[in-house]
Amino acid sequence: MNQTRRSEAVLAIYPTRRGFGYVVMHSPLSPSDWGVRGARANPKNATCLAKVSALIEAHQPDAIVMEDPTASGSNRPPRIKNLCLAIAKLADSQAIDVHVYPRSRVTEFFQQFGAKTRYEIAMVISKQVAALERFLPSRRKLWESESSRMSIFNAVALAMTFFASVAE
Prior knowledge:
Layout lengths: L9 E7 L2 E7 L5 E8 L5 H16 L3 E5 L10 H16 L3 E5 L1 H8 L7 H11 L21 H18 L1
Parallel strand pairs: 1-4, 4-5
Antiparallel strand pairs: 1-2, 2-3
Helix pairs in contact: 1-2, 3-5, 4-5
């Protein structure tokens, strides 16, 4: 699935239980579109796939980047794994490169900035990409669920990892 061609437009997608976060980037620090798309109606995967298809049509990405839900240590639910497979099939049908990275690869990339947790990674991103600074949610308390906006930062982290990988 992974190829090493340098892409002009990258669509990074981070599925969640409520939908997905996404970012479209042309370089490691220049997002052109980002957001969270919800999927409350069942079947959620069909709703998400339709929204991903609309993003592909709108942005015509050269590559799609996602977290590898089958990687060792990943505890993504079966529905998310199936959604990632469906997105990969959709991308393949449109001749779009698909790149998947395990969470450990993303964490490894951000260790150079002293970031280990997802929130620390989001803080590094918000400092480097000024356009996203106002979207950084506050650090969550143990009893709170994660803000849906964190999925945007997870998508950006994937895209930045992709750009670092193709630069090697």
